[in-house]
Amino acid sequence: MIQDLTVGDSQKTLIGYTVPMFISVVFQQLYNIADSMIAGKFAGEDALAAVGASYPITMIFMAVAVGSNIGCSVVISQLFGAKAHEKLKTAVSTTLLTGFVLAAFLTAAGLVTTPAMMRMIQTPDNIFADGALYLKIYIGGFLFLFLYNVTTGMFNSLGDSRTPLYFLIGSSVGNILLDMLFVAVFQWGVAGVAWATFIAQGAACILALISFGRRMREIKTEGRAALFSFSLLKKISMIAVPSILQQSFVSVGNIFIQSLVNSYGSGVIAGYSAAIKLNTFVITGFTTLGNGVSGFTAQNRGAGKQERIKDGFMAGLKMAVCVAVPFFVAYFFFGRAMVLLFMDDTGSDALRTGIQFLKIVSPFYFVIAVKLVADGMLRGAERMKEFMASTFTDLILRVILAFIFSANMGSVGIWLSWPVGWGIATVMSWMFCRRDLGTKRTITEDKA
Question: Whose CA is closest to 143, among 121, 182, 111?
């Protein structure tokens, strides 16, 4: 259902729009976690480490998909808010055509360079082959991943966050069932985990594209919309490229951190793999709330309703803090039980590593929640320089401090770099956001 976010009570509208997005990401992260859980439980600690070792590389590819999602959704939200439906349809087709070419190129490049990338992050010999196999299958399905993420962004830009939820629930359930079949029954190991994701993501992508095509036919225009527009591609790129760079920069930083983690052996890698999946669950949830604020901001900015933007931002902060509470409690006080979901050895280095990471990082979820919601508002207002400045500060500090701290404190020093980076970057995002809320910057339909 298409929803106009520029009318009605701001808080209720944002909650109704964002909650399905949040539920979607919960299911998405559940099947990501299920991959690691099933690998660890049925294929062993080395399989868990192999899946985890390639994780920062897979996140580079995900960065392109997420950044493109952000770029197209902000522009389409603005066009929808300004009622520029003909331009909206052109923006959709421009995004899909460009995205298809980009995804195909990255797939080919990724398949060729898989061994080199695995060596670059110092993957241990005992998990190298499985890690490379998992990565190749993952990259082979990147086209599906990319187009699904972009289509989800376009659904959300029209105020429809429920339809992607239905596809994602089906995909998540299917992925977990296939994981069990391929790994627990067929004993395919790491390859089974990868193929389960490939198949589930492909089905979700195809169904989402078909459904969105029908949704576009419901939007009537006076004339026939152009199939491609360089001016709209430029406008989308002005938001998408910084978002991709930001996401990629984060992923490249994570590669440095992963290479540092890999130097401590497969036990620490497995523990970090489990803990980082749990951590990503939370961070992705906050990011999704930020994306909800971004779409809300973009539509209302397109309609020239600045006061609603402020109300939506404050409502987003309240939701983020509420989400942080249960995750902090679960990870800080019950971290052992959470990590044991991924493994059976109760006295291993992997278990100790996972618990240690969660205890250090989880108290600062309240801090990073504020940053990611503020970032969502900055993206919706097209304040990309400020958004990138705070994000790069966070990452640069975390990478540098991880190497400095670990030299004296071992692997625990790596985990301590998270709170410092998050804290400083959150202050920056908050200051940028507060300044922007005091302005009256809007766009007109012609500018859109």
Answer: 111
